[in-house]
Amino acid sequence: MSLPFVDVSPFLTKGTPPSPAKEASAKSLFDACHDVGFFYLTGHGIPKETCDLVLNTVRTWMLTATDEEKALIARKDAGVGEGDGARGYQRVGENVTGGKSLSRKQAIDLYATHPSAPSAPPYAPLHGQNLWPNTTFSTIFNSYIASILSLGAALMRCMAVALSLPEDHFEPFISPSFWVCRAIGYPPLTPQALAENPGGVGCGAHSDYGCWTFLLTDGTKGALKVEAKDGGWVDADPVEGCYVVNVGDMLMQWTNGLFKSTVHQVVHLGSNYRVSVPVFFEPSWDAKISPLETCVARTGGKALYGGVTYGEYLLGKVAGNFYTEGK
Ligand SMILES: O=C(O)CCC(=O)C(=O)O
Ligand SMILES: [Fe+2]
Q1: What ligand is nearest to the CA atom of residue 262?
Q2: For a 10 Å CB count at each end of the chain, is N or C smaller?
């Protein structure tokens, strides 16, 4: 099995009339999401220079920031200092995928601003401010994330056509998106790294919990692995000029299982330092998500999932990602 390709270019400009090119893109998106849940996205319009700048910014900081600089933006539990239980820097081994498997990676987690975020701490979970390494980093990332949000909205228009809905059907649900972005570094597998974290090889097997993941990675091959229908693993190696995009659990629920949220993992056994930057494109904090009628009709007539408010659903997911301090 290899991952399919989807060209989103006919949907980049909002308000353009229906066209055969749109129909073809929408059909390829439907097939990719229904059959695999992972695909290479082409025609996205984000320049290579932008992508290189984002990756290099992460690589440089991860490899040159001192322990003190990293500690300054460390993730803390909600209510502790600037902490909101989610945002900030995580050391190798701090993140636990799905509440169980130790990850051998370091990362800075960034989130959209909560619609009722207070201006100063203490912060309730996910109600804080992003903890940025420096202003160059935040300028580069804020601009990059804005581009991905436009792209995410284009993919939602494509999805609407794929499901025979009006092109703007999803707009009220995603404006504004409560996005998540993770700047990740996977250290090389040295004997010392293995000794410090014997079980961890990267990022444990999981499915993503939101809608779409737009994954930007460096050129490292053989690291990201996608579960195949027969239970084996398929390498989702980077393809120049493409994003690896995958369907998350929320989108699977929204489509009543028509789109598949596929399990994947990162096993980075190489001698290089691997960098990846997933942006998770999500509904609004207050969006109410329940299976779409058209999808229920196409999947046997019975809703397989109850409704959720996206923000509450996310809070439940994020709570399982870290060891709680003091426990
Ligand atoms: O680093 C990667 O290639 C993927 C990371 C990932 O799956 C995630 O953060 O959800
Ligand atoms: Fe993932």
Answers
A1: 2
A2: C
